[in-house]
Amino acid sequence: MKKKILSLMLCGMMAMGVMAGCGSAGKKSADKKSGSKDGTITVGFSQVGAESDWRTANTKSMKETFSEANGYKLIFDDAQQKQENQITAIRNFIQQDVDYIVLAPVTETGWDTVLKEAKDAGIPVIIVDRMVDVSDDSLYTAWVGSDFYAEGSKACEWLNAYATAKGVSGKDLHIVDIQGTIGASAQIGRTKGMDEAVKAYGWDLLEQQTGEFTQAKGQEVMESVLKQHDNINVVYCENDNEAFGAIDALTAAGKKVGGDIANGEVMVMSFDSTNAGLKDVLDKKITLNTECNPLHGPRVEEIIKKLEAGDKVDKLQYVDEAMFAVDDTVKSVKAKMSAGGEKDFDITVVTDDVISKRAY
Ligand code: GYE
Asked: Do the beta carbons of residue 46 and residue 284 sit within 8 Å?
């Protein structure tokens, strides 16, 4: 891949109003020689870490897609959930003169400086999964990931419809929100969905604490809130691994997990719909699981292929996602979307057959 051609092309696209601004990236990279003679494309991927089943599935998808057999050299870096490690990784990618940088950012803020360095080096940056919040959108070429606010809205609309169907009023929903990593898009969107529903439906939100998207922290938070409140009947976990930890803590405390909140059960809700997460729905431990699709490898590759071919790419690309529940008490919900407006989503009842047909 020739960066010279790419930067000229990007500037051309900018001139056509496709992208905003044309900085020094074009000029500087025009002097550079890059790409290997055999056509191999080098991709530097800065991954958040290995905190969850979702993340493992995401890493697998990226590694399978950007394989040598597919014509890539992948430089993979696991940042262990630390932004400073991601910044170091990106600087290393720039030094190694990779063709593309792919970044799965741990949090939204703090990227301006290093992404400007990538831009100055003429290396296109593709953001995957969580978003970046930068002052200048031309610091990245494209983003692909989930509508996390829609996920939160879907889950909360389902809870409202479910409680109504069971004759439980809003003020009798005593909720603990085990949040994701604070400042990560997945946390921001899912928490916002909850905050809005609390206001709209008069729910009793007892606690909001981060479980950092891990099973260990999810369990720890649940153990601690159980000591403070004896009326918890809904636990809104912002990912599957937190839910696994919360379920262990609830069970150890002698609580029965399940959807029958009118008769003393504690309902666990979750996000991701990983294989283990859906098995917990089948076992009636998780009542609703809202999908977050981790299979971004092929989506990022499609963006790279388009850029290689000189085609224009969408700046933001949202992935379609489903909802999975223990039963069909609620058949569909109307949820709010990040881009504005509302959309209808059907709820799939989890069976062995549903799980066996899933791609992850
Ligand atoms: O939900 C969680 C992971 O950013 C969508 O990160 C991702 C989230 C996912 O740790 O399990």
From this structure: no
Give the span between the Cα atoms of 118 and 102, in whole angstroms: 11
Cα 118 to Cα 106: distance, rounded to the nearest angstrom: 18
Closest CA to ligand 1's atom 7: 186
Phi/psi at 141 (5° precision)? -85, -40
Is residue 213 lining ligand 1, measured as CB closer than 6 Å? yes
Q: Given this model, what pLDDT does residue 38 score? A: 81
- pLDDT tens column, 43-100: 999 999 999 999 999 999 999 999 999 999 999 999 999 999 999 999 999 999 999 9
Which residue, by CA, sits nearest to atom 8 of ligand 1? 186
Pocket test for ligand 1, best of 52, 58, 148 (most atoms within 8 A of CB): 52
Q: What is the pLDDT of residues 267-294, one digit of tens each?
A: 999 999 999 999 999 999 999 999 999 9
- Rounded Cα distance between 62 and 318, Å, is 17
Q: What is the Cα–Cα distance from 291 to 271, expressed in whole angstroms? A: 6
241 Cα nearest atom in ligand 1: 11
Distance 55 CA to ligand 1 centre (A): 6
- pLDDT classification of 28: cutoffs 50, 70, 90: very low
Instruction: Determine whether the shortest distance from the Cβ of 148 to ligand 1 is under 6 A.
Output: no
